[in-house]
Fold this sequence. Notes:
The structure is a single chain. This protein has helices at about 45-55, 80-95, 105-115, 125-135, 150-160, 190-195, 205-210, 215-225, 250-270, 280, and strands spanning about 20, 25, 30-35, 60, 95-100, 115-120, 140-145, 170, 200-205, 230-235, 250. It is α/β, with parallel strands linked by helices. It has one domain (about 20-280): TIM Barrel, CATH 3.20.20. It has an eight-stranded parallel beta barrel with strand order 3-4-5-6-7-8-9-10, surrounded by seven helices. Strands 1-2 form a two-stranded antiparallel ribbon. Strand 4 (about 60), helix 2 (about 80-95) and strand 5 form a beta-alpha-beta unit. Helix 2 packs parallel to helix 3 (about 105-115), helix 4 (about 125-135) packs across helix 5 and helix 8 runs parallel beside helix 9. The longest helix has 17 residues, at about 250-270. The protein is globular and about 45 Å long. Phosphoenolpyruvate binds near residues 38, 120 and 208.
Amino acid sequence: MINAKLAAKSHPHHQTIVNISQSVVCGGTELLIIGGPCTVESTQQMEIVAQTLLKAPVQALRGGVYKPRTSPYAFQGMGGDGLEILAGVRSRYGIPVVTEVMSISQIPLVAESADMLQVGSRNMQNFDLLKALGQAGKPILLKRGLAATIEEFVMAAEYILSHGNPDVILCERGIRSFDNYTRNVLDLAAVAALKQITHLPVIVDPSHAVGKRELVAPMARAAVACGADGLIIECHPEPEKSVSDARQALSLEDMVSLVHSLKPVAASVGRIVGAGLEPASFCLSVA
Ligand code: PEP
Ligand code: MN
């Protein structure tokens, strides 16, 4: 029994729909598919990503600018310059963007440029950050901690909800186990369980779960089959050259194929893959 007051489902049809932007939501019939590189590297990179993925279609772009790297000597992300790149593609293409916030001090700046703020696995129990995100005024994508129980995960969401933000999306991204053949173990039972015990949308990150690009597509389809409300997937114009998480990055072409392959799986569980934005409408905001 999980002691959540605000995250708990009160009846079988209790389901929160989180608005990411005016036209993009998560938790309804349509899946939320988020794609993009692990790390924002340049304007050119994000332009190609946006142009290709809008036609896939994906509904939102990802790209880290504050990166939680295992080594302090590894590239730590572009920071403010990266946020400007994200803000640029967001306004030129009208597509919402998602990026990670690692500390309380980053919240105001990130909230100006992004439509949804990501809490990374390593920060899932950074309670001061969670409390501050209760006041961020933007939806939060909360990733499951590397070794967090389902209860700890739900209670982390409860921190954000109880501090004033009702817009929380949970993200299963794999948990640590003994087998290092895959980077983590994708806990799809947790997805089904979370859908039963909470009303919050639940999405899956197969990229960080498996760590190998050839395993991403089958796990993405499995996630949709077991009831996930969406996916967040890493892809890159030149996957092998990705500055971080290169081994798990899909090419943009493979990302587009993957999105198409989700359609029959989605239909079999009563969900749909979005129709995407028409070129004419997504370019309206270009100056
Ligand atoms: C990421 O999304 O790039 C990331 C670092 O994910 P996680 O926090 O799940 O490891
Ligand atoms: Mn990554």
